Amino acid sequence: MVNILVCRGCEELLSDASYALRRHSAAMSNAILSAERDSISQEEFENYRTEVRSSFKEAQERWDAYREHLVEHGLLLE
Q1: Which of 3, 10, 13, 47 could form an SS bridge with 66, CB 3.0 to 4.6 Å?
Q2: pLDDT in tens, 29-61
Q3: Closest residue by Cα to residue 60 from 29, 23, 8, 26
Q4: What whole-number distance in Å separates Cα of residue 61 and Cα of residue 42?
Q5: Whole-prediction pTM value?
Q6: Which residues contact 24 (CB under 8 A, 6 or more apart)?
Q7: How far apart are CA 18 and CA 77, in angstroms?
Q8: Alpha carbon of 25 to those of 1, 28, 52: distances in Å?
Q9: What angle do CA 40, 52, 20 make, to 5 degrees?
Q10: What is the C-alpha separation between 33 and 21, in angstroms, rounded?
Q11: Eight-state DSSP code of residue 37
């Protein structure tokens, strides 16, 4: 029988990644809702674009950290 080594860090990193993805989802939802309006200003567009890019980058970084942690435990392949 093989024991799978997990730790509190696994839970924390998964939680961080999940929250970051939720923040990105909220940013996308706001952008989509605004796109359904007749028109938005250039400033509003830039604000949405900045928020979507930033939240996506954060979610990607947190997911990558979680993935790397699972690789260290031998749960995922590189």
Answers
A1: 13
A2: 999 998 888 788 899 999 999 999 999 999 999
A3: 23
A4: 28
A5: 0.86
A6: 52, 55, 56, 58, 59
A7: 21
A8: 40, 5, 9
A9: 145
A10: 18
A11: S
